[in-house]
Amino acid sequence: xxxxxxxxxxxxxxxxxxxxxxxxxxxxxxxxxxxxxxxxxxxxxxxxxxxxxxxxxxxxxxxxxxxxxxxxxxxxxxxxxxxxxxxxxxxxxxxxxxxxxxxxxxxxxxxxxxxxxxxxxxxxxxxxxxxxxxxxxxxxxxxxxxxxxxxxxxxxxxxxxxxxxxxxxxxxxxxxxxxxxxxxxxxxxxxxxxxxxxxxxxxxxxxxxxxxxxxxxxxxxxxxxxxxxxxxxxxxxxxxxxxxxxxxxxxxxxxxxxxxxxxxxxxxxxxxxxxxxxxxxxxxxxxxxxxxxxxxxxxxxxxxxxxxxxxxxxxxxxxxxxxxxxxxxxxxxxxxxxxxxxxxxxxxxxxxxxxxxxxxxxxxxxxxxxxxxxxxxxxxxxxxxxxxxxxxxxxxxxxxxxxxxxxxxxxxxxxxxxxxxxxxxxxxxxxxxxxxxxxxxxxxxxxxxxxxxxxxxxxxxxxxxxxxxxxxxxxxxxxxxxxxxxxxxxxxxxxxxxxxxxxxxxxxxxxxxxxxxxxxxxxxxxxxxx
Length: 530
What we know:
It is built from 18 helices and 21 strands. By secondary structure, the protein is of the alpha/beta class.
């Protein structure tokens, strides 16, 4: 007897191989067997007839910002109902550990716009402690975290805009090494965000080099996705080549003025692999990004910490300086998204103290208040104590399609929770399966599934996930390929997908017949301990 038997399934095993009819059995938290056609299979406590629905591995989200959201909503319903069974956290250089007690309050203020803000005491200091906190809470999906560049830099140097001393850099190296030793699955940076943006290439390379003996990935939001993207990609690839570490490019995109040049970006990725660099990337299937609203401010605003940044957005003299820096492009190497994309394309998505602003563009807010865009942004940030997020419409559909079709590129949501979020929080995976695979036929069904399963699992070093195979973890999704899809939009993002019937995490149903269950079987994935 086994626990669960799925029969008459269209099995898409995650490898990209053609689907086949068969059955899958689950015993405990593992896949007990995979059976083709009419092969004899064991009896089961529960038999579920799928009538030709697709059964595939659970989706691995290579770019998630649910680091704190998992404490507020342990079920993580917007993600598991899409079929996400594993969340990769600690993105863009912002991990929740290592953080000493005396630095916790300040770091919490720095990360909350991306990671969320919950009424829970941070009672951990290390990666190991963060994992323990997740498991003691009881979570729906599995979770793994990268160790963040910004986190270790802040731990050693605060928000200082300068190069580290030799001793400070060594201390950062030791923190990264300790985090990897305690289960972090890789190292991340976000080189457009403070304090990472203050780091030079030598600093980034020395920290990334700690990964080499572990064989774990260096995950990067590179310095530019706009005018300087080619130099930014070269910097990233060169670090991978010199240090011999795997690379994973976060949210691969072509911002203005690079529209129409996705082919060149893909060629650089292929060239990196030709050089012997194990490089992958991810994409979200939308033409808008999403991030913290304070990102539109010059880096100097953040260099003295959150409290001083709040003073700067309140002071008229500082606002004039911010306005000059944006309008006159006064800071070398810094690209302001409002100036580059147009303030009408920057839309406030979460501003809890001023919810009436959610869904409004910065341009509209400025018009309504008879002021300028910088003043409007500063007013929102001041009212919300810097904790606000935005959507930025700045990509071209043709580039998204070309990058999505590249076989080295997997799927990642990059979803930020709260307020009126980007629809990718609710719709990333069903959009790929429904819109791009079934309707647009940009991808075959098997390739769409591979991009959500085995490819991201391999890139993140998750060797027991991403494939329907005997002995691997029973993270599984059942969906109807004829109806799977999403109607989540920028105006109405809080909509669950259609056509996703069952989701299992470690052999337990977290979604059954399209509804979430009470089960919380998710685990912290501790690299080196599995």
